[in-house]
Design a protein that fits this description.
This protein is α+β, with helices and mostly antiparallel strands. It contains 5 helices and 6 strands; from the N terminus they run βββααβββααα.
Length: about 170
């Protein structure tokens, strides 16, 4: 689990769960995910070259992330606690293909000591997703997979299990 240095930009908080399944400071309109092999797009499709990157505004991408969060069943979002979701344009330079990142203490590892801490952080990266996908439909699908993947880390589900479930 990587931690941000104090000098790194945190970005805009778009969504925080309050432990009762309610989003606070929601998106407009209501672990890490990385795709190995940059030459392959989502679900095995061809990836665009750098010269033909799919275009989508940050606001449009944030809306896709919000829609993916809204598709998570309410019985699960009610269990989400002290987690903030962010959208950033690019991941850290040392991992340029990173699609998403969960930073925090999974619910399964929290104990009596867990109090008065900053929210866990889920970050979804727009740039790598747009470079990976060849159509808006692929961006929608990949964004949903990435959001579910990172939320699953909040619940303590590891990468091996997520890959087995098709959310790798």
């Amino acid at each position: 689990m990587a931690h941000l240095g104090a000098s790194q930009r945190l970005g805009d908080v778009r969504s925080i769960w309050d432990g009762e399944g309610e989003r606070q400071n929601g998106f407009p309109g209501g672990g890490a995910t990385e795709r190995p092999g940059a030459a392959q797009g989502p679900r095995g499709g061809a990836c665009r070259t750098m010269a033909s990157v799919l275009e989508m505004t940050r606001e449009e991408f944030e809306e896709l992330v919000a829609e993916a969060l809204d598709r998570i069943p309410p019985e699960l979002t009610r269990l989400m606690d002290n987690v903030a979701v962010f959208v950033e344009d690019e991941p850290p330079a040392e991992d340029p293909e990173l699609l998403g990142l969960y930073e925090g203490t999974p619910l399964t590892e929290r104990g009596e000591w867990y109090a008065g801490v900053l929210p866990d952080r889920i970050t979804i990266y727009r740039g790598p997703t747009l470079r990976l996908c060849t159509s808006r439909e692929e961006v929608v699908e990949e964004t949903e997979v990435t959001v579910v993947h990172e939320v699953a880390h909040h619940f303590g589900i590891d990468d091996e299990r997520l890959h087995a479930l098709g959310y790798g």
